[in-house]
Amino acid sequence: ASGVTLGTFDYISPEQARDPRTADVRSDIYSLGCTLYHMLTGEPPFPQGTMFEKVIDHHGSRPPDPSAKNPNVSPQLARVVQRMMASQPDERYATPDLLIQDLVDIAQSMGLRATAPDSPVWITPLFDHPGFWEANRGWLVTLALLLLIAVFIDRFPWDPTQPGNFTAASSSSINENADDEDTLPDESDDPDETNTAADGNTTDTINATAGNDAIPYDYQLSSDTQDPLGHPAVTSQSQIEHGSITGSAGNSGLGAGVFSGSMDASQGIAANTQRNPGIGRPGPRTNGDPMEDDADNQITTAPIVAENAFRVIVNGAPFNMYPTLEAACVASPDNAVIEVVGNAAVPLRESQIRILQKRLTIQASGGSRPVIEFTRSAVAATSSEWNCVEVVDGALTISGIDLIVRVPNGSNTSVFSLVRSRELTLSESTLTLANPASTLAQVIEIPLPSSAERMEMMATEVLRVDISYSLIRGIGSFLVNRSESSVDARLQQTAIALSDDFFRMECSGQTRMDQRAEGAECRVEFDHCTCLLGHNLLNVQVPMEAIVPTVEFAVEDSLVSITSGSEPMIRMNGDKEMDELIELLEWRGDINHIHVAGPWWVINAPFSTVGTLESWDEREWRDYWRDADDRPLDADLLTDNINGRWSSVQIADFMLRMSEEVTPLSSSDGRMPGVDWTQGPTPTGFPRVQ
Fold it and tell me: How far is CA 30 from the centre of its chain?
């Protein structure tokens, strides 16, 4: 009933007791949290006092910890209960689906199993069912012995005329070419002729003896690299469309392996194959952006559904394999390594990953170049926020992976959401924010902590972000800090093209001085980076009474361009005095080249007593930061306007238009400023986004 207070005082939410008209689903989550607390501890959250005193207790800033009453309650479950019982609705789970995700993760970590695939009931198994080997060990051993005996008899037949003498098998059963074990006879005299299928249809044949130049991008076929999943080799699009691949044993560029037969392009299954040619492996890198070439030159395979593409390694030894990255992250112990088996042609699709209280490394397997594509699931579609990778009290390293995030319309999307996390490392990888609707999105988000977490915040706890030899593009921002906590972000040999801000500080004003230790600061370090932005390098929003960390930029040998003519490089808005806002920034620049069509620094302080607006151009910037060496960059040296095509930016867009008439740009180490494309393992292109 609207406007009527309904509920038991042991379980009623604070807002429902205060004004029932403000109650929503989060009020139900609060009451459910109180019920769960009662189930775990044997008593309500606030068992003592009158009804009025209980209502006051429910308005308290910190919900009780069920593990304090029941030591058997895990820290993860206790944290979920406390989040459900947060006094502020915005600090609770926004939807039941988000709550269910956390509860399922906890249930899996406890070894519980669902009673049915879609059942909400999870139980402890009564019996540990034996695996396939344990259940069938007897007849499997017997079968193996029979096979060994048959092979022995076939290879070493007994000659009755000479007792005790065994002769080797006929030489006709062995490849006649003893000099090259990998050589197989061709099925036709002329490999360049067309093959005629059994149904009479003639299909073109592609001879694989053309050398490496016939294979675009950075993949070559190799017979000595076997596909652990048993998939066909990576081939060109035209090979798949024609349905036939042949090879020659004398091709030094492709190895000695030969693959002949037909391929079903709809299923990606090789028929009548005489040898598995292996999977694509990296070859020599080339300049340009081959991944965005026309379809005829695009490395691809027939659509294959990867099975167990994620291999978990613990202490250097294989642990298990899983079909999804989500399952691998849940099952992996602390400090595990997850190797991704895949190639650039077959994206591995994920919806959401959660890493709880552990440090994980996700890396490409053996020289492969896997692509992981994040698409929001139907379950997550009901939420106004979507975190592709959420790291809670943990650390994550990603290496050698191409990431594609398809940002849904109307949902605030974060690729990495870091909740009380210690470290995020991204190396030798690419990331694309495919965001055609220009929905709010960011690569990294540090969310607003709950009131209980703000009480525990300390300036000495620093989140470290390390990005090296990577490429990032798309519609959105790079780093959004809503937590008012310390961040140390270091970028080396990295190119970024984003339509919004690089670093945005959104201070909530909810953190009081007594809730936070003094000295919190954010530090951003660039070393040979190229940064193309639609808006600001730094955007700070400071409400009244907010406690704001200072921000230090240490930029060296880098290129920065603000593509919008009206946007400044640095923007500050705050309800503070002008000098207080100015003192929030510390800038250290060492031979950087910067292009800003508008002002370099804009400070808006509407309540300041000494002036409400400051707008500094390049000269005023250099006068203020006298020790810095920041040089204006000629716009003619930059690529054409990239506004409107952020998600399809290519390598060439990051490069300067240098010529003999242009004086070479200097740097502190004598190399080209910005990303030095001749140094290190920086990727040479982005994956194609369909």
Answer: 32
Instruction: Find tokens 């400051």 and name the residue.
Output: 614
Q: Which two tokens mark 138?
A: 């007897």
- C-alpha 648, offset from chain centre: 18
- Work out the average pLDDT over 323-345: 89
> Angle 308-313-314 (CA atoms, 0-180°, nearest 5)?
140
Rounded CA separation 375/689 (Å): 13
Strand, coil or helix: what is 18?
Answer: helix
Contacts of 375 (CB under 8 A, 6+ apart): 349, 350, 351, 406
Give the whole-angstrom CA distance, residue 674 versus residue 667: 9
- Res 605 pLDDT > 80: yes
Distance CA 15, CA 517 (A): 30
* β-strand partners of 431: 403, 472
397-442 confidence digits (pLDDT tens) = 999 999 999 999 888 999 999 998 889 999 999 999 999 999 999 9
How many CB atoms are located within 10 Å of the residue 125 CB? 9
The predicted model scores a pTM of: 0.59
Q: Are strands 613-616 and 601-604 parallel, antiparallel or unpaired?
A: antiparallel
Burial class for 550, CB neighbours closer than 10 Å (0-12, 13-18, 19+): middle
For 391, residues 6+ apart whose C-beta sits below 8 A from its C-beta are 355, 416, 417, 418, 419, 421, 424
Residue with tokens 């390049």: 618
CA pair distance 433, 498, nearest whole angstrom: 9
Q: Where are the alpha helices (DSSP H) in 110-166?
A: 132-135, 137-155
Q: Which residues on neighbouring strands pair with residue 674, listed in sequence order?
A: none
Contact 247, 223 (CB under 8 A): no
Please name the helix (run of DSSP H) or strand (run of DSSP E) that holds residue 86, with its range, or none.
none
Segment (H or E) for 419: strand 412-419
Provide long-range contacts, Cβ within 8 A and 24+ apart, for 163-169.
Answer: none
Give backbone dihedrals phi and psi of 156, rounded to 5 degrees, phi first: -130, 75
- Beta bridge partner(s), residue 391: 355, 418
